[in-house]
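Quick review question:
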C-alpha cells in the first residue's frame, strides 16, 4: 500500500513540481467543485433533420437568446438582439451579409465586439478560467501581459477597455466607502503589479469622489486609499498554504 502511495506521489510531483503549481491546481479544482455544473442538452426524434438539428444546437434551444436578453435587457432593440443572436448562431454567413450592407463596417465591428464580450462574460461566469481557455482557439490572445503591453503602448482600444474596467471597479469602491467608511482597498492578483492599472483606478476613483463634493453625505467621508496587495499575484498560494497549515495544526 505504501509503495502504491509513493508511486502516486511521484506521479503528482512530475505534474506539479513546485508548491506554486500544486497550489494553483488545488485552487482550480476547488473552484470547479463550487461552481455550477455544466449545461446538458438533450434532443430526441431527430430522424435525419440535419438543418433543424444544427440550428437547435447553434441556438442552444433558445438559451443563447435568453442570455442576450439577460445581459442587455431593454438597452437593445429587439432587432439588435436578433442580429446579435444570428451572428452567434451563424458567424460566417452573418459577417458576409453585414459586409455587403453596412456602410461603417469598422464601427460595426467595435460595437458588436463589445456586445459579444458582454455576452461571453455572462456565459463564462459559471466556468473556471481553464475551462474557458480550452474552449477557445489555441492562438486566442488571452494573455494579460499582451493586453497591458498594448495599453502601456497607448493603443486606444486597450486604453478604452482599461478605462471602462477601472471606472466599474471605482464605482464599487466608492459605494463601499459611502456605506462602510472603507479607508483602504488592496488590489491583488497579477494585474496589481501593473502601475498603469493602479494609476487608472485611482484616477477613476478620485474623479468620482471629486464629482460628489459638496453633497451632505460626503461630510467626513474618508478618501479611500487604493494600494496593491502585499503578496500581489502570490496571494492565492499564500492563502492556500496558510489554510493548509492552520488545518494541520487543528489535527495535531
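Suggested answer, residue by residue:
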Amino acid at each position: 500500500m505504501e509503495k502504491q502511495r509513493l508511486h502516486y506521489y511521484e506521479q503528482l510531483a512530475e505534474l506539479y513540481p513546485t508548491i506554486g503549481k500544486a497550489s494553483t491546481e488545488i485552487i482550480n479544482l476547488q473552484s470547479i467543485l463550487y461552481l455550477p455544473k455544466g449545461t446538458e442538452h438533450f434532443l430526441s426524434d431527430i430522424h435525419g433533420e440535419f438543418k433543424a438539428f444544427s440550428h437547435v444546437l447553434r441556438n442552444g434551444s433558445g438559451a443563447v437568446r435568453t442570455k442576450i436578453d439577460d445581459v442587455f435587457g431593454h438597452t437593445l432593440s429587439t432587432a439588435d438582439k436578433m442580429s446579435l443572436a444570428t451572428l452567434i448562431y451563424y458567424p460566417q454567413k452573418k459577417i458576409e451579409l453585414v459586409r455587403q450592407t453596412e456602410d461603417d463596417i469598422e464601427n460595426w465591428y467595435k460595437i458588436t465586439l463589445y456586445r459579444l464580450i458582454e455576452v461571453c462574460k455572462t456565459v463564462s461566469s459559471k466556468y473556471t478560467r481553464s475551462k474557458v481557455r480550452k474552449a477557445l482557439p489555441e492562438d486566442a490572445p488571452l494573455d494579460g501581459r499582451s493586453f497591458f503591453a498594448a495599453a502601456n503602448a497607448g493603443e486606444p482600444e486597450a486604453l478604452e477597455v482599461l478605462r471602462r474596467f477601472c471606472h466599474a471597479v471605482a464605482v464599487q469602491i466608492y459605494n463601499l466607502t459611502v456605506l462602510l467608511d472603507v479607508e483602504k482597498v488592496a488590489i491583488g492578483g497579477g494585474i496589481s503589479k501593473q502601475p498603469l492599472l493602479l494609476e487608472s483606478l485611482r484616477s477613476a476613483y478620485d474623479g468620482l469622489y471629486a464629482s460628489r463634493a459638496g453633497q451632505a453625505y460626503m461630510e467626513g467621508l474618508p478618501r479611500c486609499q487604493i494600494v496593491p496587495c502585499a503578496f500581489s499575484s502570490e496571494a492565492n498560494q499564500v492563502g492556500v498554504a496558510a489554510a493548509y497549515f492552520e488545518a494541520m495544526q487543528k489535527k495535531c
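Why it works: The chain has a mean pLDDT of 83. Residues 156-180 form the longest helix (25 residues).
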